[in-house]
C-alpha cells in the first residue's frame, strides 16, 4: 500500500488553517479507511516564517492527531522554497507526495484521482484547473498572457497548472538533483521526465485571509520564471539592436539627401527624441542583461534554499 504525504506551505494562514486542517484530515482518514493509503500517511504543514499564530496552530494539531506533521523554516523564504523544503522532507517518509496550497483554492478531492493515476504507474500527476471563472478578471488575463509568453520563449510549462500535483518518491529524488537557487517548480518538474498524467479540478476562491501574491510579487515571479528557463530575451535584445541600427541608417540617408538638396533637417526636436529613445532602449536592454547576471550571482553563491528549525513528525 502507498504512504502519502500531503505538503502544504503556509505563510500567515491562521484564518484558514482550522478549516484546512479539518477538511484535509477528513480526506486523509477517508483514504486510510478505504484502504487506499497506509496509516503512516501524513499532512505536512510547512510554516514559512509566519508572523501570526500559524506555527502554534500546526504544533497544536500535531499534538491532537499524529496524522498532522509540521515543518518549521527558520524564516520566510517564499512559497517555492517552502514547498521544496516540504517535498524534500516528505520524500524521505512517503511513496508519493501531493502538494497544495493552504487556502482551500485547490480541491482536495482531486487527490483520489491523482492516487489512481499513481497506482496506474504515473510518476507525476498534475492538477490542472478546469476553469478560471472564480479568479479575478485581471488574474485571468495576466495568467493567459503569461503562459502564452512563456511558451513563445520556449519554456515548457503546463497551462493552468499551479503547484497542485502528485509526485512519486523517485521523481522527487530526481528533482532533488536540480540544485538551482532561483526556484520555479512548475517549470522544473516537467524537466524531470517520467510518465505523467493530468487531473482537472475547479479552482475555488481563497477561503479566508489575503493572497500572499500581490501584483508586484506575481510580476517578479513571472519574470523569474522566464529568465530561469529561457535566454530568448537576450536574442530579442540583439534583434532590437539590429532594428534600431537599420532605422538609424535610413534616417542618416534621409538627412544626407535633404542636406544635399539644400534644405538640411533642422532641429533640436529630432535630436532629443532619438537621444532619449535610444537611451531608453539601451537601459531596458542593459536591465535584462543585468537580470541574468544577478541570477548567476545568486546561483554561484550556492546559499541554502531553506533552513529547517523544527520538524514535528510521529
Ligand atoms: N506562501 C508561502 N510563503 C510565502 C507566500 C505564500 O508559503 O511567502 C503559501 C501560502 O500560505 C499559500 C500558498 O503559498 O498556501 C499560495 O499563496 P497564495 O494563496 O497567497 O497565492 P495565490 O493563490 O493568491 O496565488
Ligand atoms: Mg491562493
TrEMBL record:
Biological source species: Acetanaerobacterium elongatum
Occurrences of domain Glycosyltransferase 2-like (ranges): 6-174
Entry's transmembrane regions: 236-261, 273-293
Keyword set includes Lipid biosynthesis: no
InterPro entries: Glyco_trans_2-like, Glycosyltransferase_2, Nucleotide-diphossugar_trans
GO molecular function: glycosyltransferase activity
GO cellular component: plasma membrane
Subcellular location, record wording: Membrane
Main location: membrane
Domain of life: Bacteria
Protein name: Glycosyltransferase involved in cell wall bisynthesis
Lineage of the organism: Bacteria, Bacillati, Bacillota, Clostridia, Eubacteriales
